[in-house]
Amino acid sequence: MTGKLPGPAPDERMRPQGRRNSQGIRIDPEVEATHEPRLAVLSALVKHEPGVLSEVSGLFSRRQFNIESLTVGPSKDEDVARMTIVIEEPEPGVQQAKKQLKKLISVIEVEELEPEAMRRELALLKVAGEKPDDIQSVAEMYGGQAVDASRDAVTVEITGSKQKIDAAVDAFEQFEVLEVVRTGAAALERGSMTMDPSAMESDN
Amino acid sequence: MILAGGGVIKSEACDELHSFATEYEIPVITTMPGLGSFPETEDLALGMAGMHGTGAANMAITNCDALVGVGTRFDDRLTGGVDSFAPDADIIHVEIDPAEISKNIEADFPLIGDAERVLEQLDDTLTRPPEADAWREQCATWEEEYPLAYEMPDDEPLKPQYVVETFDEMADDDAIVTTGVGQHQMWAAQFWTYTHPRTWVSSNGLGTMGYGVPSAIGAKLGAPDTEVVCFDGDGSFLMTVQELSVAVRENLDITYVVLNNEAVGMVRQWQDGFYEGRRMASEYPWIPEFDKLAEAFGARGFRLEDPENVQETIEAAREYDGPAVIDAIIDPGENVYPMVPSGGDNGQFALSEAHLEML
User: Fold this and answer.
1) What is the CATH number of the domain that holds B235?
2) Per-residue pLDDT tens for B176-189?
3) What is the pLDDT of residue A34?
4) Which residues in chain A are classed under CATH 3.30.70.260?
5) Where are the domain boundaries for CATH 3.30.70.1150 in chain A?
6) CATH topology for A38-112?
7) Is B304 strand, coil or helix?
8) Nearest residue of B to residue A93, measured between CA atoms
9) Do the Cβ atoms of B104 and A24 come within 8 Å?
């Protein structure tokens, strides 16, 4: 049967003291330095054609990036769609997600939006309709409105930042919330800066 | 340390790598796709690192203080556990794809560009070799301490390592080796001496069994005047054996060596090493006789069992002008070592199954 290869056994060998963390970064083992995850909003211009969404979502699932939300819709140019992807990752993961996205042929340009970028989300809440006036007044507090009412239920629309919608959903918990749907973030940089796909293409 | 990956070969940077490494006397380790990027006959060559790499390469990569990775993606079969990979080393990563930088191992100094040009530029920038006599001596000591060795007792069956080694001695220097995936692939990587780029044709970390038979056909069509040898396992060979008919149709002069242990040996090795020997669907002694199967295809078939016949069988197969298949019945008890368990510490490679249990 198999002989043993010659040489000192594992516990007889010299061994370096250092260590790396799970992101491959050298660390001082005494002070374990791991990066804390953070929320990052990636805005991507992609070719508006079938299969792109599955390419992007496939990339994220293969590389196990943690997606908070992903929205996609038409942009100014009918051949180009805009994807807004919110991920929660440590800094190296955010950078890696950007670089991997840029490698996809159907992705034209990727940018991480600044924290102060405008971010909006839409939520529809279906609330049991026993007190329609109360529901309406809570909706108004959050700048929302009732968009549908039946004998048993009122559906309310709220637009705003994630925090505002979180707060609104909480507030509606005093009634019986039957259903909630949220769109995920749509986001744009403040000011006059744009991601111009035609300019980007000529870059390449 | 220099770590040369497959990118060195793809960017035709082997000559530049050779002059850079020899001028500055830097020891060179290769990845599996990097086999052939730097001649293994050089003193500075430490062989392949990683899961089944040489002891010297894995000791050196673990203990070095500066690592120049060229055209490599720091794949997990190379790095083992990331926490213990070259933990004291500054990593200089020469790579053409920005997305590979700091993907698996953080690059302290990323150099993005074509391997040949970046190596040229590094060469222009450096003025003298680093003072590393002690380091080179240490590497030489590791090479002595951890030779790739195997025993051949008279009462035991044919050893696969001996078949590969004997063929290597007989074959042309620039012969092309193709492989499937598994134990035979590792023996072919370990016991053949690679001195020329593009002489190692394998699916490497992608792990596509059955790659050996058709890739040998491709290699022969691409380089008709070069000797082509395919080392295959019985498991991999059976996956694409039908392509032999193409080799026969085109009368391609290829020597196929099936290292036959009547098992998907690497799967069995893992079941023995990590699953308390609970073997499941890894052994199949009811496979065909490959020499006869080859004859049925219209190729020449040879059966090889006795270690004393290795040389003459290889000679006869090489002399045959057309596809020849050697069914080499090897010791089913033979496993691949050294071995770094998946996610393990490269410096803590096992030299035997007993070591695996210690780890």
Assistant:
1) 3.40.50.970
2) 999 999 999 999 99
3) 67
4) 38-112
5) 118-187
6) Alpha-Beta Plaits (3.30.70)
7) strand
8) B103
9) yes
**For B23-42, what is each residue's pLDDT tens digit?**
999 999 999 999 999 999 99
Counting the structural domains of chain B, the total is: 2
The verdict on a CB contact (< 8 Å) between A5 and B352 is yes
Pairs from B38-43 (Cβ < 8 Å, separation ≥ 24): B38/B2, B38/B4, B38/B8, B38/B14, B39/B194, B39/B195, B39/B196, B40/B193, B40/B194, B40/B195, B41/B193, B41/B195, B42/B18
Q: Are A6 and B149 in contact (CB < 8 Å)?
A: yes
pLDDT digits (tens, 9 = 90+) for B242-291: 999 999 999 999 999 999 999 999 999 999 999 999 999 999 999 999 99
Q: Are residues B120 and B167 in the same domain?
A: no
Angle at B50 between CA A9 and CA B241, to 5 degrees: 115
The interface pTM score, or ipTM, of the predicted complex is: 0.82
Residues in chain A closer than 8 A to B277 (CB atoms): none
Q: CA B226 to CA B196: how far, in whole Å?
A: 12
- Enumerate the residues of chain B whose CB falls inside 8 A of the CB of residue A96: 99, 102-103
Same domain, B213 and B270: yes
Determine the residue of chain A that is closest to B350 in CA distance: A10
Choose the CATH number for A118-187 among 3.40.190.10, 3.90.1580.10, 3.40.800.20, 3.30.70.1150. Answer: 3.30.70.1150
Q: Side chain identity at B35, as an amino acid letter?
A: L
Q: State the smallest CA–CA distance between residue A32 and chain B in angstroms.
A: 12
Taking the C-alpha atoms of residue B345 and residue B141, their distance in angstroms, rounded to an integer, is 20
Query: Which of A2, A6, A19 lies closest to B87 in CB terms?
Result: A19
Looking at the structure, tell me whether residues B314 and B250 fall in a common domain. Answer: yes
Q: How far B319 CA sits from the closest chain A CA (Å)?
A: 33
Mean pLDDT value of segment B45-72? 97
Q: Name chain B contacts of A8, Cβ cutoff 8 Å.
A: 145
Chain B residues with CB-CB distance to A16 below 8 A: 62-63, 84, 87-88, 347
Q: What pLDDT is stored for residue A23 in this prediction?
A: 85
Q: From chain A, pick out residues whose CB is under 8 angstroms from the CB of B148.
A: 5
Q: How far apart are CA B172 and CA B223, in angstroms?
A: 14
Query: What's the gap in Å between the CA of A8 and the closest CA on chain B?
Result: 7
Indicate yes or no: CB of A15 within 8 angstroms of CB of B147. no
Which tens digits make up the pLDDT trace of B89-99? 999 999 999 99
B276, two tokens: 């308390």
Whether B172 and B127 map to the same domain: the answer is: no
User: Is B353 close to A9, i.e. CB distance below 8 A?
Assistant: no
Task: Return the amino acid letter for B231.
Answer: F
| pLDDT for position B275 | 93
pLDDT over 80 (residue A200): no
Q: Which tokens belong to A120? A: 């909006």
pTM of this prediction? 0.89
| Average pLDDT value for residue range B62-72 | 97
Taking contacts as CB-CB distances below 8 angstroms, the residues of chain A near B337 are 2, 5
Cis peptide before A37 (omega within 30 of 0): no
